[in-house]
Specification:
InterPro entries: CENP-V/GFA, Mss4-like_sf. Residues 2-126 form the CENP-V/GFA domain. This protein is mainly beta. It is 8% helix and 38% strand. The protein has an eight-stranded mixed beta sheet. A three-stranded antiparallel beta sheet has the order 1-2-5, with no helix packed on it. Strand 8 and strand 9 form a beta hairpin. The radius of gyration is 14 Å and the shape is globular.
Amino acid sequence: MQTGRCICGGIIISFEGRPMVNVLCHCGVCRKLSGGPYSTNTCIPEQEFKLEKGIPKEYQFTGGSGNSVTIYFCDICSTLMYSKCANVTNGGFIIVVKTGVLSDQNALEENQPVLEIFTRNRVSWVQPLAGATQAEGSGSSQI
């Protein structure tokens, strides 16, 4: 089981099993949410996700794929924890955990992205991740 928490500890999440995929996203929304050129995400099936503590604030919008996305964040410290979006390939929903909130200090190392999405928006000074599949759009067929 992997766990994660916000900065203040008000929101704690967990999930079982292995991620469906680990993704770098270069879309404009992820840039705004992360404050950087991309976001690092761990995608898991909704049924494997558990909110252990707290009630996050949520905000819904239309993502770069054209589908509805809901983001969940701590209303005290504002840490963005995860988002929920439709799984266009298999139905149901995917929980997209921001990999940096995972509690294990090695989480970013152990959840190395194997897919980069919205690469058409990648800034010129960020190079493609070696060995990762590159998708100009949402990469939904790889998730």
